[in-house]
Amino acid sequence: MWHAVVALAVGFVGTVLAVPGTAHACSCVALAPQSVIEQSDAVVLGTAVEVREETNSRTYVVEVKQSYRQRVPARIEVRTPSQSAACGVELTLGQERFLVLSAPVDGPADPTHWRASLCSNLMSADDIHAYAGASLAPVGALDSANDDGPGELSAGVIAGIVVGAVGGLVVLAAAGVAVARRFR
């Protein structure tokens, strides 16, 4: 009898310990790609170039190649939960991809800060092209026909400076000649 009680107690404790804990997983409501894009604040094609890990989230710095729905800066920060079970998006540094974005809910509106959720980023590139509209150049992006790099002057600006300087010298020379003739 004593062995039966011990066996029952061990079986009960084993059963209690063997019960799995509460599982948490991302659950996405199935929406049509067109609805997801219509509900988004922006869609971008960009490359993650940096990541910062935080307690429950991760922030990616993304260089934007093209934006859709609205123009966004050429370099943005995208915050997402750090775990896919919490609907976080995992980006690979250096890999170009589309991101469907929402404006941040905490704090003032800042055009460089966005949120991304796994549920909004499950569609194909074809769906994005079909529903996101025309692509827009990011704000602050260099004109591709005039890509001199940040901090460098374009050929047109340099030509304008040279023409202005030469014109100024011609005016000064003419004024000098006029003053010299007057005092002869």
Automatic annotation (TrEMBL):
Span of the signal peptide: 1-18
TM region positions: 153-180
Lineage: superkingdom: Bacteria
Matching Pfam families: TIMP (PF00965)
Keyword terms, alphabetized: Membrane, Secreted, Signal, Transmembrane, Transmembrane helix
InterPro entries according to UniProt: TIMP, TIMP-like_OB-fold
Localization (cell): Secreted
Protein's UniProt name: Tissue inhibitor of metalloproteinase
Species whose genome carries this gene: Gordonia alkaliphila
